[in-house]
Specification:
Blueprint lengths: L2 E8 L6 E4 L7 E4 L8 E2 L20 E8 L8 E6 L3 H5 L8 E8 L12 E16 L2 E9 L32 E5 L5 H12 L4 E3 L13 E5 L2 H17 L12 E5 L2 E5 L8 E2 L10 E4 L2 E7 L9 E4 L3 E4 L5 E4 L9 H4 L5 E13 L8 E8 L8 H9 L14
Parallel strand pairs: 11-14, 15-18
Antiparallel strand pairs: 1-4, 1-7, 2-3, 5-6, 5-21, 6-9, 7-8, 8-9, 10-12, 13-14, 16-17, 17-22, 18-21, 19-20, 21-22
């Protein structure tokens, strides 16, 4: 079995890892934090996903549904279930409420086309609710995880060393963060937004580059928000109107989007090209297809190295498999070839990722039981005339254009 998963549950007050049935002791025990220690894993103890013979055929069965998206359009909370747990773990399930959790997944070394380099974090957040269940012969531990749908806790971050004063509960409507955003005339949005975020979430780094035209021209703005998602929605609307004018075209400029990734708050608006991850034909499950206008959906084998706001590239051509590990692409066949459409990928190019959903069932033999579904924009992230296009957009022209732009 090459399907890889690992889940680490940590106490936000002590940063200790909760490990079940340690040395035969029933229930959860606490051990010092180590990047090599997990609460549950598909590997043998001391195994590595990049090393053969590390997969544990007797690993517990897990199922999960983990959606991620931009903070201005939050999705449902992530769900994770573990089968075959002990009665002691079931009875202690409620003790995991409020704990930090990190889930990793992908394909470990084993099957010929498995690529351990695509393993990465599927979800990092807090356990909103954990409960054990015993139905018939099935004993499970179920977790609902807040993974960016609301705000992170203001003084904690998954995997970082914290103290006993760390607040374990995330900010909610009942416990707002108190985010104060101030935007002065002549001030660039980055200069207003970064200090605002760092004042409330000091342990999160702020990453990203925004369009140079996002300079406020009106009177001073002051706004207060209880959650990071509320701030994200306000900033996106304001940036779209600032660049697009009275009747903005979001196909031309998507506005500033915020996302959570690996203990960082990422700011982006599609104007800065980044290195794209490649989705090869051997990764695909079925053809990419339109899910709505200007958006296509790509289903591939589970991988944790693609995040919301990143770019992905679908290469052109047909798949050809040579001897050994040689895998490559050949030019498209002649037009007169039979069944050309069946042998080529329906879409080629680089696209911006707007949503990612991981769905898995480790014991289900179907290829659709261990997948990542990616929603991407079909508009081009940048082109050779981007600087000229940006100037026209700032001047109120070319509202119907599709491509995003980069600053001149």
């Amino acid at each position: 079995m090459s399907r890889y998963f690992a889940i680490r549950v940590t106490d936000p007050k002590t940063n200790q890892i909760l490990v079940p049935n340690l040395n035969g002791k029933p229930g959860f025990s606490r051990v010092p934090f180590s990047p090599l220690v997990f609460s549950y894993s598909s590997l043998y103890q001391g195994g590595s996903p990049t090393r053969l013979a590390s997969n544990n055929a007797n690993a517990l069965r897990v199922t999960f549904d983990i959606p991620t998206g931009f903070l201005d359009a939050p999705l449902a909370n992530a769900y994770f279930r573990i089968y075959g747990v002990s009665l002691q773990e079931i009875s202690q399930g409620a003790n995991l409420n409020g704990m930090n959790v990190a889930i990793y997944g992908g394909m470990a070394k084993g099957l010929p086309l498995a690529n351990p380099a695509q393993i990465g974090p599927l979800c990092q957040g807090q356990i909103l609710q954990c409960f054990g269940n015993w139905v018939g012969t099935s004993q499970t531990l179920d977790m609902y995880i807040q993974a960016g749908g609301s705000s992170p806790a203001s003084n904690q971050v998954t995997g970082s060393v914290v103290t006993s004063s760390t607040l374990p509960a995330p900010t909610t409507n009942q416990n707002p963060a108190g985010i104060v955003f101030q935007w002065q005339p002549g001030q660039h949005l980055t200069d207003a937004l970064v200090p605002c975020i760092q004042n409330v979430y000091p342990q999160y780094s702020v990453l990203g580059t925004l369009h140079q035209g996002l300079v406020w021209t009106g009177t001073a703005v002051t706004a207060v928000f209880g959650k990071l998602s509320q701030l994200a929605g306000y900033v996106r609307r304001a940036s779209i109107n600032l660049i697009g004018g009275y009747a903005p075209d979001t196909a031309a400029y998507m506005g500033v989007r915020m996302s959570l990734w690996n203990n960082s708050i990422v700011l982006q608006d599609g104007t800065t090209p980044t290195t794209a991850k490649t989705i090869y034909a051997v990764d695909l499950i079925g053809q990419p297809t339109y899910s709505e206008p200007l958006e296509i959906q790509v289903t591939c084998t589970l991988r944790g190295d693609i995040k919301v706001g990143a770019y992905v590239t679908i290469p052109q051509g047909q798949l050809t498999i040579g001897t050994g590990a040689q895998v490559g692409y050949v030019p498209p066949p002649p037009v007169e070839s039979i069944n050309t459409a069946k042998n080529n990928i329906a879409f080629q190019g680089s696209y911006l990722v707007t949503a990612v959903r991981h769905v898995g069932d480790s014991r289900n033999p179907s290829g659709l039981a261990w997948v990542t579904t990616i929603d991407v924009l079909t508009t081009q992230p940048y082109d050779a005339n981007a600087a000229v296009y940006a100037q026209k957009v700032l001047a109120g022209q070319n509202k119907s254009a599709y491509q995003f732009f980069i600053p001149s």
